[in-house]
Write a structure and sequence with these properties.
single chain, mainly alpha, Growth Hormone, Chain: A, 14 helices
């Protein structure tokens, strides 16, 4: 990757070496490791390490610490090209995932989770920056939808293999983690050597960027991180703890999500393009509020496993609309702010994630329904914030208030 190559000249390269191909390869490789880790996690920690609700809360708090420290990417890009940093982080995620089952204790799981999380969060931070720099604004919503679909498709293959072979061949956690993590690591190594180092036309500011005119984007990121954590930590844990799902059953549920997302994600990209960021985000948050209220009803009124599984799928569909938050920022941002603001936004997104899982783990022991009712309240706050996005966001028109009060330059 020693050769630098301007993005503007990328069309002269063979298709398999172009920037969009690299984005699709990374989009497919990352979820194979991360989603497989997630699919096996709840069964692994309950069956092997004897976790309870408090332990799983602490695990996810540790997992989110690197996300909170994602602002460190600003320092790293002083020394490393963003593309190199993304692929090295992806390699780290794959290797750490492969080694997960080698540490079947609370301390060991926390340690290896921290390492894999550093790879995941730093990869995600830089990858988001690369997507927004490399994709044209007019094509970005549709392309982001296709990238989501590509990730779902690759993960579907991994999940299908787990469902078909887990019981038939009595697979071990170690083997599955080794294969999935190893695949991601190999793809990262291939990309490091196969692609030139692409140079975007706008040099990125290599210092922390906090601008007042981005305040709504920051607020939406904070609420998204808090709300998302409740789903990631406790929705899947509920399926195992309350309804006794086995590994292949959890994975089958994940497969359904993936198939639906492969179809829906490109449509969501088109929806953002047609209806705008404000309308699509408002629809997402209103739907999520209803979903979380229904999750609470499962515990309060004893609603069954079919409803719980259905809500889990609907939850994933709605979360795919979060790509509208990326395109909202792409439209209002100065081109040179994308990389540093992606790092700052990732940190803001994970402020609540550092303390919320551990704190709610204790609430879970007393009232699981209370956890989901709190999430519904967060979704309502997000809905109110989304309504502040203008129909046509751009620099100088970042919020609905901009038409009355000129946006500050910083």
């Amino acid at each position: 990757m020693s050769r630098q190559f301007p993005i503007a000249d990328a069309k002269s390269l063979p298709f398999w070496r172009r920037p969009v191909t690299l984005l699709f390869l990374m989009a497919a490789a990352m979820p194979v490791a991360f989603a497989t880790w997630s699919a096996l996690l709840n069964n692994f920690v309950i069956e092997v390490a004897g976790f309870d609700g408090s332990d799983i809360g602490w695990l996810h708090t540790v997992r989110e610490i690197p996300g909170f420290l994602a602002v460190g990417v600003i320092v790293l890009i002083l020394f490393f090209h963003e593309q190199v940093l993304a692929l090295v982080s992806l390699l780290m995620l794959g290797v750490a995932t492969a080694l997960t089952a080698q540490f079947p204790t609370l301390g060991g799981i926390l340690m290896i989770t921290l390492l894999s999380s550093i790879g995941f969060h730093y990869y995600e931070t830089v990858n988001q920056s690369l997507q927004l720099q490399w994709l044209d604004k007019k094509r970005a919503p549709q392309m982001l939808g296709w990238l989501l679909a590509a990730g779902s498709g690759a993960t579907l293959v991994a999940y299908a293999l787990i469902v078909v072979t887990w019981r038939a061949f009595d697979l071990s956690y170690n083997l599955v983690y080794m294969v999935s993590g190893g695949f991601t690591a190999l793809v990262a190594v291939f990309c490091l050597f196969a692609f030139p180092r692409f140079e975007a036309p706008n040099p990125q500011v290599k210092k922390m960027v906090l601008r007042r005119r981005y305040w709504l984007y920051y607020a939406l990121q904070f609420m998204a991180g808090a709300r998302r954590q409740i789903f990631i930590v406790f929705a899947g844990f509920m399926m195992v703890e309350k309804f006794g799902f086995d590994v292949h059953e959890v994975t089958a549920l994940f497969m359904i999500n993936l198939v639906v997302n492969m179809v829906v994600a490109p449509l969501m990209g088109r929806a953002v393009f047609r209806f705008g960021e404000r309308n699509t985000l408002a629809f997402e948050y209103f739907g999520l509020a209803l979903v979380f209220l229904a999750y609470g009803g499962i515990y309060m009124f004893g609603w069954g496993v079919v409803l719980a599984a259905t809500l889990y799928v609907v939850d994933h569909i709605l979360f795919s609309l979060a790509l509208a938050l990326k395109t909202y920022f792409q439209k209002i941002a100065d081109p040179g702010d994308i990389a540093p603001t992606a790092a700052v936004a990732f940190t803001i997104n994970h402020i609540a994630a550092v303390f919320l899982p551990a704190a709610l783990g204790y609430l879970w022991l007393v009232s699981p329904a209370g956890v989901f009712l709190l999430a519904a309240g967060m979704a309502c706050v997000s809905l109110c914030l989304a309504l502040l996005i203008p129909r046509h966001p751009e620099p100088g028109n970042e919020t609905v208030f901009s038409r009355f009060v000129p946006a500050p330059a910083e």
